[in-house]
UniProtKB/TrEMBL annotation, chain A:
It holds the Pfam family CBF. Residues 164-194, 418-460 are annotated as: Disordered. Residues 581-736 form the CCAAT-binding factor domain. It comes from Capsella rubella. This is CCAAT-binding factor domain-containing protein. Residues 165-178 have a biased composition (Basic residues). Belongs to the CBF/MAK21 family.
Automatic annotation (TrEMBL), chain B:
Signal peptide: none annotated. One of its GO terms (biological process) is ribosomal large subunit biogenesis. Coiled coil: none annotated. Residues 27-121 are annotated as: Disordered. It is found in: Nucleus. Residues 87-97 have a biased composition (Acidic residues). Residues 40-62, 73-86 have a biased composition (Basic and acidic residues). The keyword Nucleus applies. Residues 110-119 have a biased composition (Polar residues). Pfam families: Noc2 (PF03715). This is Nucleolar complex protein 2 homolog. Residues 27-39 have a biased composition (Basic residues).
């Protein structure tokens, strides 16, 4: 292993693994390799019993001296490794591998060229002309198996990614292939026979030649793939062959080729990034193994590059769009650490808003998984992906599918990233220094000059290795991660703000603009909803400086439609009620998460809510959002002035009169909550002669007022409750009665635990059980009705003469028929 | 089919009825072989068969929307209804040998009945067997002549006189025999089928006379002989068992009823049927003694009720109603369930003027239900629960099949039926739970099926709610449902959801209507109509101003944006009227001294004004309602 140290960590691992001379290294490095290669379960190192492993003195010393190198061993998550690599879990591929190897040995035993008869194939095949054939072609059956293997593995892999329809299509495809093979078989056998029908067969053959070549290619693909999987290092050249096959004109072959390559690459790509050796390194003398490894790696890389280029080209063609995207996504998901990942990412983000739903969903889920599994790539890809999406949004002027921004919700921002780590690092450094000092002291005592120089060289090399390692590994330190996170955040918020600004812009412009021209296929403001959701979620990460701007935006958006009230005749660009409600909601959430530290006036949002309540329409607007706004803006608000609270109370009561039980209930719950908090508002429950003493400046209630403070609600009485207590829904009627009795009942302290959202969900019809409340109850009939309705005795007028005439006619007819029958009967007998 | 086979079958039929039943269920084809044997049952039984076959499929109602069927909720009762309706004898009556020439007394009633029922080939065998058995007793050559009885006008005349004046039982027996022959005339091969006795009718004059005479006089005669008054109930009939006269008269009554039912079932002319039905209705009490016949009668009447013409259908219904009144305890359920099923079954069959027919059917069914609210209540709640189940499935899955089922004629008619039932009875009985459930169901339907194409269904839903609200005095908010319809005008061809749910349905409007101005007018008129009904109900309620707030706001908004002058005028007028109403209530309200929690005073508020109902807006509402009703009739 000495020489391999020179070539950097990467090579060390490989060479060590490939030369199992030093068992200790195998033990350590093998494990480390396992750790790195997470996705395809790596092959277990040869099972060597613990006691058989002998450590050479040199190795021991090395480890002892450089404990920090070995520290990771103690930190290894053995449970996870066992789970990943333990013998109990067998992937499908493993099984096939096993089977295949078994078969191979079996075949070898029998000798090549011998008849290979699978138990399944023992049955003869009857051809069309009625002759029986026993299958004897070893090669053919093997090939057929291989290809089904391939197809099946493909199918299995696909299943993770594909949606149902595609899976079905895939299954159909593989089935078709199998069928075709079956069909083919007798033909070929017949051909081999060289019977008199040869002439006929020749024709058939011609017709089938196209299919046959296809068949052959498929077989070849399968063969190559199998070879590659069984021994990648020896057969690395096959990659190129498959790639060549992918240039075929037949789309099916190309697709199969791409999928096979995907399977192969997924399996053989190592758990580290390959760095091609520099010229200087190439000049150096290296061992045979290292050379072999280098060659292998460079070949692999080249092939991979070619494959990716192919994919990226094909991805743009509509025929291959889905399949290429699937390959790209799978690769990015499986090997996000490997070379060329940036290119993959670009391709994925480019498709994130694809009109094809399958493609879009694939891309989105890939990006999501990148965000949620940062450990695989150390977070670098997160930053890049977010940046790319931001650029994408910018380029498309926010006319993208909502999914493309929704993925941001999967990003996790760690607040205290690095803080404890920093301390750790500090300690580590300190310790390290100490150790080094100690070592040096010791060494000074013990060692001679030669050793000293060697030591120096060693440390130099070590530094180099560490630097290299850092460059290659994907465990960035805390500082870097913090930096990356900041970048991610800024990109995310940039996107969000862009969306907000764009929405504002379109609303402002919309009066002059031709609404059709800019109307994207995703609706008027496709990105607004996910953007608002995201803002609400990440608001804590937002810099306080920006919050002011954000609030301004939200304010403008929330009030958007009331501004341009007159000119919106055919303007579809306006925000919907739900969107505006969401804006208000986000504003409140932002304020609350910042602990109301900002001095922003939320009054405008209340005004908006006050008006939006009237504009709400159950089918069109989301009742859930409304209920949430009621909860957050009204129920959770601590101190409200009386005028405003009264206005809301009145409006909610009016609202409850006109809408379904879910909406009514959530409104009533809010109303009750408001009345509980604002004792003075309970004046609304009393009919004070003369308009009440507390009524403000406005003496008369204005039901259509747009400003809660100007509605004069305190001057009115909640007469709605009187009607609501007649509501058909028992819960609402009892609620209304309770509210109207709030003033008089003594138990004023009880607080309703139900939130408006809860009420809305409970009373929505989807949840309704439709069980009559108490079925067993006996009916109490309030009034006995007259037992018999006398009028029922009506007898229709029947004209007897007419009737008798009809009867006569009827009789005559019947008689005739009878006579006829009789005559016929007599004739017969 | 040898003798043994036949004997075995006979034995099985008598003693192993459950086996027989199962056989019928399992092997419908097997049954068909024997169909000839009881030709009369054919039609009914085949229907039965189908129902039985379908049943096992419908055992798992939760799984599949297809499997929940509204009309099958009471399925289990169905089996027992019609079985063995014909098991006992139906033959000619035994005529007294002393009074009538001929000596066929030995041949028993039951044997004859078997003969009459048996098919041709079997009859021959039977005859041979009988001949052997009775060789010593009966001289075949002689009897053949004497058995053939021809009814001539003169004989009939004397018979009639005898019955009329002396209530002679013997004459009545003869008459009834001829009557039976007349009823069956042409329907059974009399010449060969019953060789032992053969009643023949001379000419059409006698035919008509015997029919009319028996139908008109039989009931009266029976009552006279038994000494019953016209208004005697079924208990009296059941008590008759102790009456010695009854023993002799029972077969006569039975024969009469049976023959009449045969007539009703088989006659071709509707007037004849009507006549038969009315006469049957008169003597309905007698059915108390013959439960099997009663079941058959119910079946026939229901068939006539559903399929018959106006008068016939009505008469059939009256019969049913009488049955359910007279035999309340046993037959009410049967009647109700079967009528309910027939009604729902009929909903799906498109017919000419089906709307009126369905209305009649619905009203008559409601009338029947109102006879016994307690019993109908349980039925209604079962049925409504079923409706709710279907709806819930549709709401949760949005499955196309399920949704289609909701806007099918069957579903809506079923809702309609129960709404009317509740509306008819809610004032007298406490039907609150039913009201609640049905309102939720209707709301669910309105919520599930949206879009301009379902305007009619939406309007229907709101009308139901209004009807329920008006009759029960409960507040049911409809504003949100109504105001959605105002928006319909702005929607253009962007309705993709509707395209998916394309199905032939009366509730759904053709697509090309949607853009027409007519459609928009229709929308607005419907809005105004249902709102007027809603407001008219609450126009004197103390919270009317608040109730009208949001609708008025929306209407104003519509008024500002609409550019159709005709509609604008209508809307404007409506707004003005409602506003004057608001103002009026507000003025009155200012003088009120009670608080909202004083429910009693609130209920008393403005009751006086309501009684007078002279306010202009009241009249306005009324005019709109009347107008809407008028246009509906025109259609």
């Amino acid at each position: 292993p000495n020489c391999s140290i020179l070539c950097g960590q990467t090579v060390i691992i490989i060479s060590v693994v490939s030369s199992p001379n030093s068992e200790a290294a195998v033990g350590i490095m093998g494990k480390s390799r396992r750790k790195q290669k997470v996705i395809p379960p790596p092959q277990l190192p040869p099972d060597v019993p613990e006691e058989d492993i002998e450590f050479s003195d040199e190795d021991l010393k090395y480890v002892q001296e450089n404990t920090q190198y070995a520290r990771f061993v103690s930190r290894l998550d053995t449970a996870a490794i066992n789970k990943q690599c333990g013998g109990t879990v067998k992937t499908v591929e493993d099984k096939y591998e096993e089977e295949r190897s078994k078969k191979k040995t079996h075949q070898e035993e029998k000798g090549n060229g011998e008849i290979l008869v699978d138990p399944v194939d023992v049955l003869p095949i009857k051809t069309l002309d009625g002759k029986l054939h026993y299958r004897t072609e070893a090669k053919k059956s093997k090939l057929a198996e291989a290809i089904t293997d391939e197809a099946e593995t493909d199918v299995l892999e696909d299943e993770n990614i594909l949606n149902k329809s595609q899976r079905r299509a895939k299954a159909k495809k593989s089935k078709k292939e199998a069928k075709k093979q079956d069909k083919e078989l007798p033909n070929q056998i017949a051909k081999e026979e060289e019977t008199p029908q040869a002439a006929v067969l020749a024709e058939v053959k011609e017709e089938l030649s196209v299919q046959e070549t296809l068949e052959n290619k498929q077989n070849k693909l399968a063969e190559l793939g199998t070879l590659l999987l069984s021994d990648p290092e020896a057969n690395i050249k096959s990659l190129k062959e498959i790639l060549d096959l992918c240039k075929d004109e037949n789309t099916k072959i190309v697709k199969l080729g791409l999928l096979s390559l995907l399977a192969v690459f997924k399996d053989i790509i190592p758990g580290y990034r390959i760095r091609l050796p520099t010229e200087k390194e190439n000049e150096m003398k290296v061992s045979k193994e290292v050379k072999k490894t280098r060659l292998y790696e460079s070949n692999l890389l080249k092939a991979y590059k070619a494959y990716l280029q192919k994919l990226i080209i094909l991805e743009k063609l509509p025929v291959y769009n889905q399949i290429a995207t699937r390959c790209i996504c799978t690769l990015l998901d499986a090997v996000p650490h490997f070379n060329y990942r940036d290119n993959l990412l670009i391709a994925v983000v480019g498709n994130i808003s694809s009109p094809d739903e399958v493609v879009r969903r694939l891309c989105c889920s890939t990006v999501r998984s990148l965000f949620s599994n940062e450990g695989k790539h150390g977070g670098e890809l997160t930053v890049q992906a977010v940046r790319l999406i931001a650029a994408h949004v910018k380029a498309h002027n926010c006319q993208l599918h909502p999914n493309s921004i929704e993925v941001f919700m999967s990003i996790r921002f760690d607040e205290d990233i690095g803080k404890p780590n920093k301390e750790d690092e500090h300690n580590k450094k300190y310790k390290k220094n100490n150790k080094r000092k100690n070592q040096e002291e010791e060494n000074q005592v013990q060692e001679n000059e030669r050793k000293k120089s060697k030591k120096e060289m060693m440390s130099k090399i070590r530094d180099e290795v560490t630097a290299d390692y850092k460059g290659v590994t994907y465990e960035p330190d805390a500082k870097e991660r913090r930096k990356m996170q900041t970048e991610t955040l800024s990109a995310v918020f940039e996107t969000y703000f862009r969306v907000l600004r764009n929405t504002m812009y379109t609303i402002g412009e919309s009066t002059e603009e031709n609404p059709i021209s800019n109307q994207g296929s995703f609706g008027a403001h496709p990105l607004l909803a996910p953007c608002l959701d995201g803002l609400a979620k990440f608001t804590q990460q937002l810099d306080l400086d920006y919050i002011g701007d954000l609030m301004n935006y939200l304010k403008k958006l929330a009030s958007s439609s009331s501004v341009s009230n007159n000119s919106k005749q055919k303007n579809s660009k306006l925000l919907t009620v739900s969107e505006r409600l969401r804006c208000c909601l986000v504003a409140f959430k932002v304020m609350r998460s910042n602990l109301n530290a900002l001095n922003v006036d939320l009054q405008d949002f209340f005004v908006q809510l006050y008006n939006l309540i009237l504009e709400y329409r159950p089918g069109r607007d989301s009742g859930v959002v409304l209920a949430e706004s009621l909860k957050i803006m009204l129920c959770d608000d601590r101190h409200q002035d009386m005028q405003k609270a009264a206005a809301f109370v009145k409006r909610l009561a009016t609202f409850a009169l006109c809408f379904g039980c879910a909406e009514s209930m959530s409104a009533l719950v809010t109303l009750k909550n408001l009345l509980q908090k604002n004792v003075k508002c309970r004046n609304l429950l009393e009919n004070d002669a003369g308009g009440g003493s507390v009524s403000g400046s406005i003496a008369k209630y204005q039901p259509y007022a747009t400003d809660p403070n100007l509605s004069g609600a305190l001057a009115t009485v909640l007469w709605e409750l009187s009607l609501l207590s007649k509501h058909y829904h028992p819960a609402i009627s009892t609620m209304a009665t309770t509210i109207s009795n709030m003033n008089t009942s003594q138990s004023q302290t009880f607080l309703s635990a139900v939130t408006p959202q809860q009420a809305f969900a409970d009373f929505s019809l989807v949840k309704e059980s439709f069980e009559p409340k108490d079925e067993s109850r006996k009916l109490n009939i309030k009034r006995k009705r007259d037992s018999l309705a006398e009028g029922a005795k009506s007898v229709p007028e029947i004209d007897m003469e007419k009737l008798s005439k009809k009867l006569k006619e009827n009789f005559t007819i019947l008689q005739d028929i009878k006579e006829d029958e009789r005559v016929r009967m007599e004739l017969q007998s | 089919m040898g003798k043994l086979g036949k004997k075995a079958r006979k034995f099985a039929k008598k003693n192993l009825q459950s086996v027989d039943k199962r056989n019928r269920k399992l092997k419908p084809f097997f049954k068909k072989k024997f169909a000839k044997k009881n030709g009369r049952r054919d039609v009914g039984d085949e229907k039965e068969e189908k129902k039985v076959e379908q049943k096992p499929k419908k055992r798992f109602p939760e799984e599949d929307p297809q499997d929940i069927s509204i009309d099958d909720v009471f399925g289990k009762d169905d089996d027992e209804v019609h079985h063995d309706g014909d098991s006992d004898s139906d033959g000619y009556l035994d005529e007294d040998p002393a009074a009538v020439k001929g000596a066929e007394g030995e041949i028993s009633d039951s044997k004859m009945s078997m003969q009459s029922k048996a098919s041709l080939s079997e009859l021959k065998k039977q005859r041979r067997k009988l001949a052997k058995l009775n060789e010593k007793l009966v001289d075949e050559a002689d009897s053949d002549k004497s058995k053939r009885k021809v009814l001539s006008g003169s004989v009939l005349g004397t018979c009639c006189d005898l019955v009329d004046e002396e209530q002679s039982v013997q004459a009545l027996v003869r008459l009834l025999n001829w009557y039976r022959a007349a009823c069956h005339y042409g329907h059974e091969p009399s010449g060969i089928a019953s060789p032992d006795i053969c009643y023949d009718i001379e000419d059409n004059e006698t035919y008509a006379k015997v029919m009319i005479f028996v139908l008109q006089k039989a009931d009266h005669t029976f009552r006279n002989i038994l000494g019953l008054s016209d208004s005697s109930n079924k208990e009296k009939i059941l008590k008759l068992k102790n009456n010695p006269k009854w023993d002799s008269l029972k077969p006569l009554v039975k024969s009469f009823l049976r023959s009449t039912m045969y007539l009703v079932k088989h006659a071709a002319d509707s007037e004849m049927i009507i006549f038969g039905v009315t006469q049957l209705r008169v003597s309905i009490v007698f059915f108390a003694a013959f439960p099997d016949l009663l079941k058959k009668l119910i079946k026939i009447s229901i068939h006539l009720w559903v399929t018959g013409e106006d008068t016939l259908s009505q008469q059939a219904f009256l019969t049913l109603k009488d049955i359910s009144m007279v035999f309340n305890s046993e037959c009410f359920d049967t009647c109700l369930i079967n009528m309910y099923k027939a009604f729902l079954h009929d909903c799906d069959i498109p017919k000419a003027n089906s709307e009126q027919r369905l209305l009649f059917l619905r009203d008559s069914l409601v009338e029947l239900c109102s006879q016994d609210v307690q019993k109908s209540y349980t039925k209604a709640s079962v049925s409504i629960t079923q409706l709710a189940k279907l709806l819930k499935m549709a709401l949760t899955t949005k499955n196309k099949e399920a949704v289609e089922k909701i806007h099918s004629g069957q579903y809506t008619n079923c809702v309609d039926l129960w709404v009317n039932f509740i509306a008819a009875n809610v004032q007298d009985c406490d039907l609150k739970p039913l009201v609640y459930t049905i309102v939720q169901v209707i709301n669910g339907v309105a919520q599930l099926i949206i879009g301009p194409r379902y305007l009619l269904l939406r309007v229907k839903c709101i009308q139901w709610l209004n009807q329920l609200s008006r009759t029960s005095g409960i507040f049911i908010p409809i504003a949100s449902l109504v105001l959605d319809m105002l928006e319909y005008k702005t929607t253009n061809d962007g309705e993709k959801q509707e395209q998916e749910l394309q199905a032939v349905s009366t509730v759904k409007l053709p697509k090309n209507w949607l853009k027409s101005q007519n459609f928009q007018e229709q929308c607005i008129f419907s809005v105004i109509e249902v709102l007027a009904v809603h407001f008219a109900q609450w126009s004197f309620h103390i919270s009317f101003p608040e109730l009208a707030t949001i609708p008025i706001m929306r209407l104003k908004y519509f008024y500002e944006r609409s550019n159709m002058e005709g509609l604008k005028r209508v809307v404007k007028r409506f707004i003005e009227q409602v506003e004057s109403n608001i103002e009026f209530v507000q003025r009155k309200r200012d003088d009120a001294t009670f608080s909202p929690n004083d429910q009693q005073s609130a209920d008393m508020f403005m009751q006086l004004e309501k009684q007078n109902a002279k306010a202009p807006y009241t009249q306005y509402y009324q005019s709109i309602i009347d107008k809407a009703r008028g246009t509906k009739k025109k259609k």
